[in-house]
Fold these 2 entries.
Entry 1:
Amino acid sequence: MIDKIAPSIAEALAGVKDGSTVLIGGFGTSGIPGELIDGLIAQGAKDLTVVNNNAGNADYGLAALLKSGRVRKIICSFPRQVDSHVFDDLYRSGKIELELVPQGNLAERMRAAGAGIGAFFCPTSYGTELAKGKETREIDGKQYVLEYPIHGDVALIKAEAGDRWGNLVYRKAARNFGPVMAAAAKHTVASVYEIKQLGELDPEEIVTPGIYVGKIVKIPRVATQAGGFRKAA
Amino acid sequence: MAYQKRTKDQLAARVAQDIHDGAYVNLGIGMPTAVANHIPAGREVILQSENGILGMGPAPAEGQEDYDLINAGKQPVTLLPGGAYFHHADSFAMMRGGHIDICVLGAFQVSARGDLANWSTGEPGAIPAVGGAMDLAIGARQTWVMMDLLTKKGESKVVERCGYPLTGIACVKRIYTELCTLECTPQGLKLVDTVDGLTREELEKLINLPIAA
């Protein structure tokens, strides 16, 4: 019998090794799997490469993981936010390596990994600093840059509901990188607020089919926190 | 003759005036966000947000914020009836694939031929961040820039060649500013309009670049 439901976050994350590339879903605080990140901090794997759109908000979640000193490198599109002081300090003191990637390339490089694509030509960043040293090609009169996939050893993503086969649905714009990261990693762990019986999730509406998911863990529902912007006074 | 600058609201309204009924539009963080408040009555425009939203609506009423539903600036928004969510790779495929009619971005500098610099001032020690700017700039069918024409020091932000790091090459079609609307062409700048009382010749002196009539 297939049962991807893990009894605890600790069990779902037990196999994460030092030196892993960890794909972490979320755009700012929307869709960030805070409970799984806390679990990764407790699990203790170090020398990690983390992929996320941003580089943590305030002092919790991803920022806390960075602060723990276990992240060697971060691959992201937009590290600088009003509340990214943990990353800012690490970066300025040379304690973390940054690979800055245009957001669409970040998504597409992971999509390519999940889809078995060896590399792809993309027009984004042609002629800019971020394409420096990369192979380019003119195709039908337009310039492209060669981009390679980003494979994850582990993906940590947040979904709304799942079943024991690992099928997932998401909530609103918290979906963001979840489906792409699920396919791009060898071992995907999803937190869910609800566990459904097989057949309860409408097959027409399942967003991530269970084939891409290793473990799901139920967590208590907590409202997503604000983060990443300056609130009007 | 004296002239009046466009206010921020007038500038947003000027941009909105050129957005056609039925357009799929992405509005960048900052000044462009205000364009949404000025879409002329009777025009239906669908806003895309890079984090996987089509049919994005205005900010929610106080107390109704849902931080799973945010815009590119990470502020809470709403979804209009008919709106849809999708994942990040789809969202950027939508841009690169030429499905977004118009994106409106802020800028540090734009060259006469439409090169855009809006992601980095290249200052040493600054933390770089690019987000979706490079994907949007080259992906949308039309990229428009909305910015002040002059810096606080009075220097033109429309230039012969960008001094700041580039976001994209020859990607900007139009520049909307507090004083004028310009078109970027392979031959250089072309005038669309100026505020009342400002002539094309005066504008050319202000930015020190030729502007075709």
Entry 2:
Amino acid sequence: MAHRWKNDMTPADVTPKSLFLNRRQLIAGTAGLGAIAMAGGAQAQDAMTPNTLEEITTYNNFYEFGTGKSDPANNAEAMVIDPWTVTVDGLVDNPGDYSLADLTEGLTIEERIYRFRCVEAWSMVVPWQGFELADLLAKVGVQGDAKYVAFETVVQPENMPGVRSRVIDFPYVEGLRLDEAMHPLTMMATGLYGAPLPKQSGAPLRLVVPWKYGFKSIKSIVKISLVAEQPEATWNNINPREYGFYSNVNPGVDHPRWSQATERRIGGGLFASRQDTLMFNGYDEVASLYDGMDLSKEF
Amino acid sequence: MSAATTINGGLRRVPAWPLYILGAGYMVWEFWQALNGLGPYGVEPINVLEREYGEIALILLIAGLTVTPLRTWTGVNLIKFRRAIGLLAFFYVLAHFLVFTVLDVQTIGRVVTEVIKRPYVTVGFLGFLALIPLAVTSNNWSIRRIGPVRWRRLHKLTYPAALLGALHYIWLVKGWPLEPFLYMGAVIALLVLRLNWTKIRAILIPSRQQTNS
Ligand code: HEM
């Protein structure tokens, strides 16, 4: 059932291609005058204007390609995404190895302009294209005792320098509780700015959960499993004190090493001011999923 | 004539002052690139600049620590450049701290909170504090006033400063990248090279010396 959620940002908010390609140059031009950049602060970006394609695709975390923010943009080209097979298994009626075309067949692609908040206290606004995860789950048939959805990222050591240097354990894995996965906000993205997903953004298929820190939105998915127990999640495994399984955006729960109360919108230049982080990244409609939970403990 | 003597002879004609110009010029060049989103600065210049200044500061601290072991073990004497290296290290830490304060965290209240609450920032801050008296006394007048012995003792603060800087780096990264450990390894190696090995051997193996006598 697509279209269950309506953008508070509309397709009209997506800057025409010529503009989003040029804004960077414009900023660079004026920034040379220093004083103007200073006065401009966050370049008067309003909360709804999507970041430029350049911003979205040159500042990424995708440790398979290295830990630097520009490593994914520099190295992801080597990843092979065609053919692409997604294994669906576990507590489902229609398990199997699906080609991307088979998996997405019949699902409605829509545009969603979402805020994106990284656990590192920076944020963007991203115009995704994709479908609701709930629709995909309906298609594969979730069985009654499934409680969680587990996801896995592709591993191609020969094409992924970060995997070879083993900075963290691969494959990268993530998971959602089933009700989170079924929420109409939760989507599987296949496109960005009207074009197929760039590789550094998680081509050809990635999760997008806008009320959680970005690392939950796992990229380049090759496996989806319906399971009964809470699945493993990479950062949660590495450091459970710093990265909870839920990892909902929460200005009241600091990362032990930095504050989560504020964030910096990417694209504001050297003098960008911080803005307040919103509970659930501003997506209050998910609050009821966590009724009765102490989110400062189950973070 | 040994290689070290030749090198030292050549270095005699190289003045130290261009290091200040190079160091300051590079700092401005980095800032200018960050301002214009050039080179490595891309779309999020603040964090990149903060890290850039921090990394250069650590490299300079390590460079300063190599001067003495290099002289002890190879005879190559870079001592006349050491003040410039040390002062530049301090100014890069200062710039690093200013980027953190003014551009990144932005309010005094938050700076205080971060310094108190985040151990890796606390550690960096202690390193910064340790460098302040060194920077203030890095001039001939101070050496005369304090006296060379006490001055040298005071300037041993570079050891904890470098250790704290490297620890700060290890503490702030996610996952297990190699660089921070390489820096820490370099600091530890350079400190170990300073130990008085004859004395240590005497303490560790006293019996052997007795039987030898
Ligand atoms: C001896 C003094 C210091 C040294 C040698 C030092 C060195 C470094 C280095 C090497 C990095 C990482 C660079 C990289 O990733 O390439 C860094 C990052 C950082 N330092 Fe320092 N630092 C010092 C003092 C301070 C002080 C006084 C503060 C703030 C009060 C501070 C705050 C930070 C922050 C916030 C980061 C970046 C963390 C991030 O990117 O998330 N440092 N520093």
